[in-house]
Amino acid sequence: MSNGTRQPIVYPPHTRVDLRKFDPAATNGMSREEAEAELVGLRLRLNELQNMLYADARYALLVVLQGIDAAGKDGTINSVFEQVGPIGCSVVSFKAPTPEELAHDYLWRYHRVMPERGHITIFNRSYYEAVLVERVKGIVPKATWEQRYEDINRLEEYLLRNGTVVMKFFLAISKEEQRERLQERIDNPKKQWKFRLGDLEERKLWDEYLEAFEDMLERCNTKHAPWHVVPADRKWYRDVVVARTLVEKLASLGLRYPPADPAVLGLKVD
Amino acid sequence: MSNGTRQPIVYPPHTRVDLRKFDPAATNGMSREEAEAELVGLRLRLNELQNMLYADARYALLVVLQGIDAAGKDGTINSVFEQVGPIGCSVVSFKAPTPEELAHDYLWRYHRVMPERGHITIFNRSYYEAVLVERVKGIVPKATWEQRYEDINRLEEYLLRNGTVVMKFFLAISKEEQRERLQERIDNPKKQWKFRLGDLEERKLWDEYLEAFEDMLERCNTKHAPWHVVPADRKWYRDVVVARTLVEKLASLGLRYPPADPAVLGLKVD
Fold it and tell me: Which of B55, B81, B269 sits opposite A85 (nearest CB)?
């Protein structure tokens, strides 16, 4: 796809996105300077909107970030939420489940850390791992993971109906971009701690992950909780897309500072 | 106290601080411009140190903020941690305990949300409420709260021995400053949601709170977990004191990026 053609971020529900034809380096005609300038304002606006979400206390916001290793999930969080204070905004990074978590249904550990109203919680990886790593590595049989797409759609519909807005971002990078980023982790002493030998085994499963991502993007792209497919080779474009999407969504909720108790108006403090 | 005299932030263990003689407007000779300039650098440094704390993963940091209503706990968090990303840094704001929490020992709800190694957790109010509001409002009898100072000292000693560094800040404001801030909450439509009529009842207990704070600052000011008594009428001075103290502490821990697995060095990614 040439840079002149716009590549959509959101697709109609249940559209199949061919990730082999998707351009992870797309910037939809935007320059780095334009993106960085826009991002400055978006970060400030996101902070304002988070304060209003908190004061308003009618909605919660769940942000789901998925992407292959080194797709930039941590970097996106650090950049997009740079101006958002930690009161009312938290991140949960999911690792391999503990024995206690495995002893429960697979959505249990995610449900218990959902944001309360007024708060933003960012899932750095999420319940989608149940149809990604667990599928690709054969941790559960196909008959099990096949049913999970519908479980997840129902969960997200339920959450929205109960005041939790779910915003999902898939960060798409090219295989070459992943190679460069993993190599950087090996070569840079400040990044070596992020690298595990297992990362190279995972990389060998690139095609299997691509297929699992395509199924996820097709089957869980719903009207109530659409997937945003973000070209993420260029970090500055990735960040502006995520920030803009969040700002637009929050701005659409009609957030407002709750009206004061009439007994409070005009009071003088001694 | 004149602005020329330095007012200590930390006192020798178990010193009684007379809060009636303490100057909450003290700036120890610093100007607003100096403080704001220093704060810019401290925020960036705090972010760097948090990244190293995370990579190093040997220590956790617990930051405890206490102060009377409107002392500026939220404002301090938003300002000091402005540059620290939400990955690895979270805030817990404690409200009145739930029935489940009340059914446990009083430290239970605090212990379960302590930071894991590599993380910073900020307690916006803390287990110290067990010797503050619970004492002042007579929620528990004296025979009960009297024993809690020692429980808390033991807990903090235990935490430190197990890798959690505890940094405690008491934000001291004057009664007149509190009056102005509560009045602002009543008069400013964007702040009214923060105000409750009960805040005025609490204000009537100013002297009782002062005594409870003095006891807390005396009995729980230990070598392993000293109290920092922060003059907090001037927000810019308050922020620079808290930020500087945290930066100095983290810088003293000898944090480092963990060395790479020898099997990883020199690897080339295909």
Answer: B81
Query: What is the per-residue pLDDT for A50?
Result: 97
**Which pLDDT tens digit goes with each residue over A103-126?**
999 999 999 999 999 999 999 999
Question: Does any domain span residue A22?
Answer: no
Note the helical H segments in chain A.
Answer: 32-56, 73-80, 99-102, 108-111, 133-136, 142-161, 175-187, 198-203, 206-219, 235-251
Contact B189 A78 (CB under 8 A): no
Take residue A62 and report the two structure tokens written for it.
Answer: 């769940």
Return the HEC string of B18-37: CCCCCCCCCCCCCCHHHHHH
The SS3 assignment for A171 reads strand
The reply to whether B27 falls in a domain is no
Domain that holds residue A82: 32-251
Element spanning B213, H or E: helix B206-219
**What whole-number distance in Å separates Cα of residue B54 and Cα of residue B47?**
11
> What pLDDT, on the 0 to 100 scale, is given for residue A3?
44
- H or E stretch covering B150: helix B142-161
Cβ-based contacts under 8 A for chains A and B: 113
Q: Which two tokens stand for residue A270?
A: 């001694």
- What per-residue confidence (pLDDT) applies to A5? 64
Say yes or no for a CB contact (<8 Å) between A90 and B90: yes
For the beta sheet containing B89-93, the strands, ordered from the edge strand earlier in sequence to the opposite edge, are B89-93, B120-124, B60-67, B164-172, B227-231
Phi, psi of B16 (to 5 degrees): -85, 125
With CB atoms and an 8 Å threshold, state whether A192 touches B89: no
A87 to chain B nearest CA, in Å? 6
Phi-psi region of A224 (alpha: psi -120 to 50; beta: other; left: phi over 0): alpha
Q: Tell me whether residues B78 and A87 touch, CB distance under 8 A.
A: yes
Nearest C-alpha of chain A: how many angstroms from B85? 5
- Find, among A251, A248, A243, the residue nearest to A80 by Cα: A243
Substitution target from A98, A121, A193, A203 for chain B, most B beta carbons within 10 A: A193
Given a cut of 50, the residues of chain A with pLDDT beneath it are 1-4
The answer to whether B84 contacts chain A (CB < 8 Å) is yes
CA distances from B25 to A215, A226, B219, B269 (A): 61, 52, 25, 58
- A238 lies in a domain? yes
Q: Tell me, what's the ipTM? A: 0.88
On whether any CB of chain B is under 8 Å from the CB of A95, the answer is no
Mean residue pLDDT across chain A:
96
Structural domains of chain B, count: 1
Q: Which two tokens stand for residue A140?
A: 């559960």
Query: Which positions in chain B touch A85 (Cβ < 8 Å)?
Result: 77-78, 81-82
As a whole-number percent, the residues of chain B with pLDDT over 90 amount to 94
Tokens coding A196: 């595990």
Is pLDDT of B70 > 70? yes
Q: Is residue A181 part of a domain?
A: yes
8 A C-beta contact, residue B141 and residue B134: no
Q: How far is A243 from chain B (nearest CA, A)?
A: 15
- pLDDT at position B259 is 87
